[in-house]
């Protein structure tokens, strides 16, 4: 059940086909997951979303691929996005995340959430030492 | 301005002094930041909070120290905790985070937030392929 | 599956019947969606909730009906309320929202979420020019 | 600094004066805090907001006054509303909240946030035993 | 469907069995709900999580057991944790929460969310009277 | 106070100067607000962020400019981004938002937050009638 029907034959639209072809080539798989199948209802939104995912997640950069997935999972958990938690946990596993790392990720997300709430509850003033402009 | 007054002489309480001593020893610094100074209003809460921060953040584990700080910052951003964003950005810098890595972290947190909103707006059903029990 | 059982014959309670009658008359439909059927477990909460929805959403005002639904969807997405995303997307469609407008709404919600995270990550100070009192 | 300027002489508007008089009478104080002073920019919004706060928070009900404030603080913390955390912590103190209760409230909010993140990370299926309709 | 498969025979691990035994003894029931069954995939995370839940929720303290559950539900609602809303609503019912109290809890969570949004929209400055350090 | 120091002479970097020139030309003003001044610390992040803001907010589309700002404010409120609430409220005012519209926006954001919490508290099942695929 979704708020937009996934097009039945999305690749008859050449813009959608081009994105799906690029997803398959970039990820070296024939599997196109549901997010992209539903985004096909609006080719410009599909194109822009995939372009940024590819640029940031599938391109070598200063953070290693697994670290990027761990950050992605963490954000998805806090935003409560069930779909994204599932898809990026699977992606992290595919990039080598072990059960121990998965458990440690949960522990750190939970710890951060915990101290976030305490700092907000206390309304602690920020230490001057943390000011980047003073560095 | 805070919801709890930081005790004026917190280390006259031996439980607070023990925690502050451990913070100084663990971090090899004399600086005790405001979160701990305010948590001193309730020694049991101070002890439990520090014990978990130390166990997860200051102990070697399956994730490297900088990765843990990046996840911590990401969670703090999404939870909107100003204090925690400041303190953990400073901590990540102290552990070697470069400006490029900081910018990339922001880009990934922002990308995840973006696709989280889109997946939630579409209410995309989770692909069966992502089920761990099916793995 | 819900935390409260929807009453089996809610309209035997005259307070519930009065609200359901008003929903049908206001919306010109016989369809009472599940939110109201479950809220019937507590007539005062049902009455107060419907009264406010009617006053704000079903009464002519300074914002047009579709704009109000778009804002409602946006808030529901960010709050991660699956039920509300579904019900208000359906309501917006009934008020004329096109696929293009739906896609654009998602794009703006996603853009805002993205810059929200970046501004929070940077802890950017608010420009004096934005102060309403200075206007 | 605010997005709306608080009217300089709000009580020259009789609708505002009526609300402010009722706040003073209900709370038995001359102090009108900044939320109401800013809401005075739009008398209907001021009236509706105060009417609901009074109905729920200043009227005897099935939950005692302090419990209601503790829930209010908890929600305000998770929503990251600095103003509300301050105002409702002050209100809870006025209703007798001790330092120990305040610390325990923080501990429970933090624990709930922690297990919320873990349950979301795991995407645990809900046990059939929790279904109210099955009760 | 979950991101981690619940172990098929979790109690063959003595650390898991010890936690499950303690859950059964503490709660006086044979029912182990799904959160714990899934957390069994990582015994240290299971142990730490249960230890804190037991210390805060199953130990007499300055807040009564039902108040603690109400706060827990409130946080879980705002964090959008479906599993936790279900499990803690069931726990609150087991501790005596009536339908009227449940409805009132929802009304207060909703009111707090409402005024949280308004205060954030207005960016109301915090009154000096709320400063704990000034008390 | 920020987590990144705004460069003292950002326009000595030609990539930053190009973005700032485009902001000035697009908005027909000499004012560059703090978000862009801080993002100048990383020119690629600055470029990508401005490119998307310009494409979505400063380009004619299926939603009118004021509606887009109202949605932007709504999302920023729920995400608790103080800076963004300020900057987009100012932008909405510049595009003609009246006080009455501003108050109504707050009322709808608050109403949505309220019903979001109630629907999440009840865990209401989604009506089959809302399924787009069934449409």
Keyword list:
homohexamer, 135 residues, mainly alpha, AhpD-like, 2 domains, 64% helix, elongated
Detailed description of the structure:
The structure is a homohexamer of 135-residue chains. Chain A has 135 residues and is an all-alpha fold. Chain A has two domains: 11-59, AhpD-like, CATH 1.20.1290.10; 62-123, AhpD-like (Up-down Bundle), CATH 1.20.1290.10. Chain A contains six helices and no strands. Chain A has helices spanning 14-27, 34-39, 43-57, 65-78, 82-94, 99-122. In chain A, α1 runs parallel beside α3 (43-57) and α4 packs antiparallel against α5. The longest helix of chain A is centred in the last third of the chain and has 24 residues, at 99-122. Chain A starts with 13 loop residues before the first helix and ends in a 13-residue tail after the last helix. The model of chain A has no long low-confidence stretch (mean pLDDT 96). At the D-E interface, α2, α3, α4, α5 and α6 of D face α2, α3, α4, α5 and α6 of E.
């Amino acid at each position: 059940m979704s708020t937009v029907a996934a097009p039945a034959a999305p690749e008859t639209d050449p813009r959608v086909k081009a994105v799906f072809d690029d997803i398959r080539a970039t990820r070296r798989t024939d599997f196109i997951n549901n997010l992209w199948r539903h985004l096909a209802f609006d080719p410009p939104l599909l194109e822009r979303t995939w372009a940024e995912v590819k640029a940031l997640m599938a391109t070598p950069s200063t953070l290693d691929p697994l670290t990027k997935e761990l950050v992605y999972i963490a954000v998805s958990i806090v935003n409560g996005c069930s779909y994204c938690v599932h898809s990026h946990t699977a992606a992290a596993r595919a990039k080598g995340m072990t059960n121990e790392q998965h458990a440690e990720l949960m522990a750190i997300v939970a710890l951060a959430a915990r101290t976030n709430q305490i700092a907000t509850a206390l309304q602690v003033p920020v230490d001057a030492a943390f000011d980047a402009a003073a560095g």
